[in-house]
Every structure is written in structure tokens, then in C-alpha cells.
Amino acid sequence: MTIDFADVPLWAAIAASAFILLGAGLSLLGAIGLVRLKTFYERLHAPTLATSWGTAGMAIGSMIIFTTGSGRLVLHEILIALFVTVTTPITLMMLGRATLYRDGSEGNVTLPAGYHGPEQDEADLEEEPGEKPGQA
Amino acid sequence: MSATILLTSLWIAQGALALAMCLATFRMVRGPRAQDRILSLDFLYVLAMLQLLAFGMRTGNVLYFEGALIIGMLGFVSTVSLAKFLMRGEVIE
């Protein structure tokens, strides 16, 4: 299915452009953060700009363009937005835990405050979340 | 008129995404440790997906949507397996 941009009304073009520019601009901002932030634990937050509103902006813009251009409802971009929203926290949490494990076993100085290495990590896995004896 | 607006904003968006991909590649090449490189690789997958989505919009073709979805899935699987490798030293236990 191919659409022609001449079929897209002016209001839809302006709205879609705003969403597309928002998405691309937030992705660029995330990349700048990835380069400029100092430690890994800060850098872990930068790509989420692209995976939350970066992807959502592009998907909404695409939905507006294809819906108004083809004359029928086109919503399949929601699949991409949903998939990225569900998978990003999983990957970043796994990467963060792996990094904590590596830094803890090496005694690295960039550890977050209050974390004492892989032994505490094992203890956290065994006990209920929210209860940490020995910590105020 | 609407075609001009859409094409201009899509070109700007693709330029911004290309610049973001360059920055992510810079962090992947420079990144002090393995986890920085994996994070940049995951970000690069997301940016490639957005780039393909923008390309599909610019050509007015729905076919590129499936490619973007597949790139997103591959990025998820590769990042999870690399993170597991960092954690345990093997991917499938």
C-alpha cells in the first residue's frame, strides 16, 4: 500500500510533523546524553528518551500520515510502540544488574552509595523486597 | 503544501536520527567498558528502527514497518543475551 502526500490535509501534515520532530529531537537528546554523562549508571538513563517519547512520537506521526493519506484507519504502528515500551525496562534492568555484579566483584569506586557488592545482591534476592535488615 | 511540510520535517528528523546514530557509535567505540558498548548497541538498534520508520513514512510505503518491527525484536534479544553473558559468563544455562 502506497500513499500520496498530496492526499494528506494540511492540519494532519502539521500535527504529524510536530510529532515526528518531537520524536527525532528527543532521540538526538538521548544520544547527546549518552556521550556527555560521566558514569555508566547515569548513562543508563539516556537511551530511555528515545524508547519512550522518541518512539511514541514517530509512531503517532506515522499513524496520522497513513490514516489520513489512505482514508482508512491504520494503527499497526502501535505494535512497535507497545513492544519497545515493554522490552526496554527488561533489557536495561538486566544490563544494570550485570554491571552492579561486575563492579561489586571488582570493588569499583563508581558504585552507587549503599551498595556493598555481590554478597548483598544474593541476600536481596532471598529476602522479601522492602525489608532490609541492617539498613536504616 | 502539506507534501512540502511533511518532506521537510521528515528530512530533518532523518538527519537528527543519523546524528544520534553517529553519537551512539562514538560511545560504542570509545566506551570504557563492555557494558557501555552493549548499552550503545541497544540504543543503535532503537535508532535504526526509528530511522526505518521515518524512511517508510518519507516513501509513503507501509512495507518498511515490518522491517522496523524485526529490528526492534533483534535488538531486544541481542541485548538480553549480551547482558546475561556479562552476568554469568554464558548465555544459556
* Total DSSP helices of chain B: 3
Helix content of chain B: over 70%
**Roughly what is the average pLDDT of chain B, rounded to an integer?**
90
Strand proportion of chain B, as a percent range, falls in under 5%
Q: Compute the separation of the termini of chain B in Å.
A: 58 Å
Q: What sort of overall outline of chain A do the alpha carbons produce when their principal axes are compared?
A: elongated
Q: What is the residue-mean pLDDT of chain A, rounded to a whole number?
A: 82
Could you provide a short overview of the structure?
The complex is a heterodimer of chains A (136) and B (93). By secondary structure, chain A is mostly helical.
Give structural notes.
The complex is a heterodimer of chains A (136) and B (93). Chain A has 136 residues and is mainly α. Helices cover 68% and strands 0% of the residues of chain A. The mean pLDDT of chain A is 82. Chain B has 3 helices and no strands. Chain B is an all-alpha fold and 93 residues long.
What's the layout of helices and strands?
The complex is a heterodimer of chains A (136) and B (93).
Chain A: H1 10-36, H2 40-43, H3 48-70, H4 77-106, H5 118-126
Helix pairs in contact in A: 1-3, 3-4
Chain B: H1 2-30, H2 34-59, H3 64-88
List keywords for this structure.
heterodimer; A: 136 residues; mainly alpha; 68% helix; 0% strand; elongated; B: 93 residues; 3 helices
